[in-house]
Write a structure and sequence with these properties.
Number of domains: 1
CATH architecture: 3-Layer(aba) Sandwich
Order of helices and strands: EEEHEEHEHHHHEHEHEEHH
Largest sheet: 6 strands, mixed
Number of helices: 10
Strand order of the largest sheet: 6-7-8-3-9-10
Strand content: 15-25%
Distance between the termini: 41 Å
Oligomer: single chain
Helix content: 25-40%
Shape: globular
Bound molecules: adenosine-5'-triphosphate, magnesium ion
């Protein structure tokens, strides 16, 4: 479904990604792991058009997406969440999810201009879809709240609702359970598995190894911008390069 070929990104001459190549198969959960600063978020940013890669190619369903702006990538069927949450605190929870449908809202505005079926109906339909998305992520009862007053765990789920509302074919999740407690993590894990069972393809950047190893079909390991391993969770767990990347740099925790 998605093929990365020799993807590289430099920041001021310093390489953050170096010739990363791998494929995502449709319907799979692929986990992208690696130590802090390995280049995981940079990779997602290069796929989604937030950053332009310095070299290499991004192919999605046979279409070359390399260097396209973010809205074009979204239009092609790829959605994402951000590691540092990007919600609009003054907008309602519902309106934050509606932002994930702006492309369709734009189209409906256009059809209103052309005197196609009334805009009101379209709007109602979009709001209904947004409410359904909120319901999936257990946020429907907070739809009218300003998003800024949501607790952290709810904000994470709001980002996921916004990513999935447009029924994208591929969703990239950047650390969806970071900062969540064990019960919240398990709930998000179940939701991710359910999304897979409904046919979504997911790329999951995550440090929670229990979650990664229990739900991923494929694991890709980045270290210092390079892809050092790829395989099933079991294969990756016993790969000496992976153990070294993690254990060789382990810092004492506070
Ligand atoms: N906009 C930027 N400008 C300059 N350097 C950057 C920028 N974004 C990332 N980097 C650098 O690129 C490298 C990879 O960063 P990235 O955020 O992709 O890592 P990561 O694997 O997502 O780490 P983490 O697990 O901490 O989120 C780091 O050395 C980082 O400092
Ligand atoms: Mg990151």
């Amino acid at each position: 479904m998605l093929t990365l070929e020799g993807l590289s990104k430099n920041f001021g001459g310093l390489p953050a990604l170096q010739e990363v190549s791998f494929r995502l198969r449709g319907g799979d959960i692929t986990a992208l792991i690696g130590p802090n600063g390995a280049g995981k978020s940079t990779l997602i940013n290069c796929i989604t058009g937030v950053l332009a890669p310095s070299a290499g190619r991004v192919d999605f369903l046979g279409r070359d997406l390399t260097g396209l702006p973010a809205h074009e990538v979204t239009r092609s069927g790829i959605a994402r969440t951000f590691q540092n949450l990007r919600i609009f605190p003054r907008l309602s929870v519902l309106d934050n999810v509606l932002c994930g449908l702006t492309l369709e809202a734009g189209r409906s505005f256009f059809s209103a201009m052309l005197r196609l079926p009334p805009l009101r109906h379209r709007e109602r339909r979009l709001r209904l879809r947004a409410l359904e998305a909120l319901d999936r992520f257990s946020l429907a009862d907070k739809a009218a709240w300003p998003a800024g007053i949501l607790a952290y765990g709810d904000r994470k789920r709001l980002e996921m609702a916004r990513a999935f509302v447009g029924e994208p074919q591929l969703v990239l999740l950047d650390e969806p359970v970071a900062g969540l407690n064990a019960a919240e993590t398990a709930a998000v894990g179940r939701e991710i598995v359910r999304l897979k069972s409904e046919g979504h393809t997911l790329l999951l950047v995550e440090h929670d190894m229990d979650l990664v190893m229990s739900i991923a079909d494929q694991v890709v390991v980045l270290d210092s911008g390079r892809c050092i391993a790829r395989g099933t969770p079991a294969e990756v767990q016993r790969n000496p390069l992976v153990l070294e990347a993690y254990l060789g740099r382990m810092e004492p925790t506070a």
